[in-house]
Design goal:
Elements (H helix, E strand, L loop, with lengths): L1 H31 L1 H7 L3 E3 H8 L4 H13 L4 E4 L2 E3 L13 H6 L12 H6 L7 E2 L2 E2 L7 H25 L9 E5 L5 H9 L4 E6 L1 H4 L9 E4 L11 E5 L7 H14 L5 E6 L1 E2 L9 H14 L6 E2 H10 L4 E6 L5 E6 L1
């Protein structure tokens, strides 16, 4: 009963986020005049034609928005990358309810800067890019970094507990684990309490691990996951790949594969979005998270299983399995 209550609470917290983000996404859809574009095409349109109509240069971002809206009953999918209007979407036009929806538009902010300009250009004016990628190292963001670190630690406790409770066999026979992007080691501390014989290494940027407090036997190593990853039986990527583009993920995964032995594996802990609109209690939360990543990163995204399969194949992995841990994320075990 306790496990069921925890799972329900985890689903419920994403419902709160869903209500907030959905309002923003609907307003953006109205500003983009997506319904008007469908109406001009006879009520049905392909993704590429829709992107052209609303001025997008990134089809994938528009696909993610449409997936989110369709999941919540606005528009419908009629084929691969093909969409149609429905009774609800027809209300979101300038001559019906659009003006009322836009009346409640609020200024964009840190985690919900979903605006037509950001989505069309792929650039956030309040996110400083380094070589086209996000950077969190600017000293001006020191307070934000503390909030971010605290949030990641809270997330790590909940998700790691879900893994240990629902699929402890994932760590059977494992002697060493490297948590890539492990920040201050919270996930590993939880793992080492459950599996005390495991050696745990939290691997992150030097400036991140330099500020890490002592953490229950966790070893801290500084470096870049784009250069090399410490050797271990298991390399874990928890909420890391969703920050990066597909090409960057392939680079990261190649370095992780180089770090494990032939009998080892890479564990990816991330949301796996159902492209056809999953019906479990967490799918709405996964789509919320996808919108958050679109708004708060330059190239980050939540991926479908097909998308994960593609980047794993490009990185040289031969097989993988997916485990449901009864929360918003799943565990993907990738084998060399």
């Amino acid at each position: 009963m306790v496990l069921e209550e925890v799972a329900q609470a985890d689903a419920d917290i994403w419902k709160f986020a869903f209500e907030f983000i959905t309002t923003d996404v609907v307003k953006t859809a109205v500003e983009l005049e997506i319904q008007e574009a469908l109406a001009k095409h006879g009520g049905s349109i392909s993704l590429s034609d829709l992107a052209t109509a609303v001025g997008f240069t990134h089809d994938d971002k528009l696909r993610r928005i449409m997936r989110f809206l369709i999941h919540h009953g606005i528009f419908k999918k009629t084929g691969d990358d093909h969409y149609a209007e429905n009774a609800l979407s027809r209300l979101f036009t300038r001559d019906k309810m659009a003006a009322f929806v836009l009346l409640h538009r609020t200024p964009p902010h840190t985690m919900s800067g979903i605006t037509p300009e950001v989505l069309r250009t792929g650039k956030r004016p309040d996110v400083k890019p380094a070589d086209g990628k996000d950077t969190w190292s600017d000293s001006a963001y020191e307070n934000h970094m503390k909030v971010f670190t605290d949030a990641m630690e809270a997330h790590s406790r909940v998700t790691t507990s879900a893994i240990i409770t629902n699929h402890p066999e994932i760590f059977n026979g494992i002697q060493s684990v490297v948590d890539v992007g492990g920040r201050h080691g919270m996930a590993l501390e939880c793992l080492l309490k459950a599996f005390p014989m495991v050696r745990g290494i939290s691997f992150d940027l030097p400036e991140v691990v330099a500020k890490a407090p002592p953490r229950g036997g966790v070893e801290f190593v500084g470096g870049s996951m784009f250069e090399s990853v410490p050797k271990a039986d298991v390399v874990m990527l928890m909420w890391v790949l969703h920050d990066w583009s597909d090409s960057s993920c392939v680079e990261i995964l190649k370095k992780c594969r180089e770090a494990i032995p032939a009998h080892g594996k890479v564990i990816i802990v991330d949301a796996v979005v159902d492209d056809d609109g999953g019906d479990d209690e967490y799918e709405g939360g996964r789509l919320v998270l996808n919108m958050i990543m679109m708004a708060s990163t330059v190239q980050g995204k939540e991926r479908t299983l097909k998308e994960f399969s593609r980047i794993l194949d490009e990185a040289g992995f031969t097989s993988y399995t997916v485990k449901n841990i009864r929360t918003i994320e799943s565990v993907i075990e990738a084998y060399p």
